[in-house]
Design a protein that fits this description.
This protein is mainly beta and about 260 residues long. It has two domains: about 1-100, no CATH class; about 110-250, Neuraminidase (6 Propeller), CATH 2.120.10. It contains no helices and 21 strands. It has strands at about 1-5, 15-20, 20-25, 40-45, 50-55, 65-70, 70-75, 90, 100, 110-115, 120-125, 125-130, 140, 150-155, 160-165, 165-175, 175-185, 190-195, 200-205, 215-220, 230-235. A hairpin with a 2-residue loop joins strand 6 (about 65-70) and strand 7. The chain is globular, with a radius of gyration of 18 Å. It starts with a strand and ends in a 22-residue tail after the last strand. The relative contact order is 0.13. Residues about 205-215 and about 235-255 have low confidence and may be disordered.
Length: about 260
């Protein structure tokens, strides 16, 4: 493990919280030019330092990432030569060991993904899940508006919180039914996080959404089963040594642990 300054970040990277730390990996600087970001970097939330800790077994970008205990799961995305991936790889952050997991039922990229009920759920054009010791993914026939582009997912209690264009849905994966819906007026798809039973929605109101750090953002707090929605305005500040000009995508906010 080496400490240092985090390099400029590419397009299609992911940021995932594990405990007090933040893990960043994947992406490509110039799409189609074989300029991959293959290192795994950890931001120590206590010392506030960056460390280069691991290497990816193979390049990938615009993938999904989910933490489960001390494991980091990288799901789908694009590999070399713009090949759409169905593979899933697991990194144990303590040992540095990579493991190949069962492949997705269909290749996918930029899918919503979250851990719920001891299962990893992946949602895009359909919904599927993987249990800890399962040999394959299981498809769920869910009556959801997939055409709206489900982009972000979080976990609220034992249910899924799904963000899509114009609305947030609280969904029970078993049995499958919609528990609650929050309509988002005149907004794009919101990034979401869940804390103490409330859903926080993060919007970038600027027309240029490629660089959000340092910009004015809108933050909404929605309490399910309530008509009350609180709105506020925040300024997105960088982590120490994070290159502002390099941010091209803002990954989903991690759920507090």
């Amino acid at each position: 493990m080496s400490a240092g300054r985090l390099p400029p970040l590419p397009q299609g990277f992911t940021a995932t919280a594990i405990g007090c730390d933040l893990y960043i990996c994947g992406g490509e600087y110039e799409l189609g030019h074989n300029t991959w970001f293959n290192d795994v970097w950890r931001y120590d939330g206590i010392t506030q330092c960056w460390h280069k800790v691991h290497r990816l077994p193979a390049p990938r970008r615009h993938h999904s990432a989910v933490s489960w205990g001390d494991d980091l799961y990288l799901i789908g995305g694009f590999g070399r030569y713009r090949v759409l991936l169905d593979n899933v790889q697991r990194l144990n952050i303590n040992t540095g060991e990579w493991s190949d997991m069962p492949p997705l039922l269909e290749p996918t990229f930029m899918a919503a993904a979250t851990l719920c009920r001891d299962r990893i759920y992946v949602i895009k054009n359909h919904m599927e899940y993987l249990s800890r010791d399962a040999k394959q993914w299981t498809r769920i026939e869910a009556n959801l508006p997939f055409q709206l582009g489900i982009r972000y997912a979080a976990t609220i209690g034992r249910n899924l919180c799904l963000s899509m264009v114009g609305k947030i849905i609280i969904f029970s994966p078993e049995p499958c039914y919609v528990i609650d819906t929050h309509v988002v007026q005149n907004r794009k798809c919101a990034q979401i996080a869940v804390c103490n039973g409330a859903v926080y929605l993060l919007f970038n109101d600027n027309q240029d959404s490629s660089h959000i750090l340092g910009q004015q953002l809108s933050l909404e707090r929605w309490q399910p089963d309530s008509e009350k929605t609180e709105r506020d305005t925040i300024i997105m500040l960088p982590l120490p040594h994070l290159h502002l000009s390099s941010i091209h995508t803002m990954p989903a906010l991690p759920q507090p642990r």
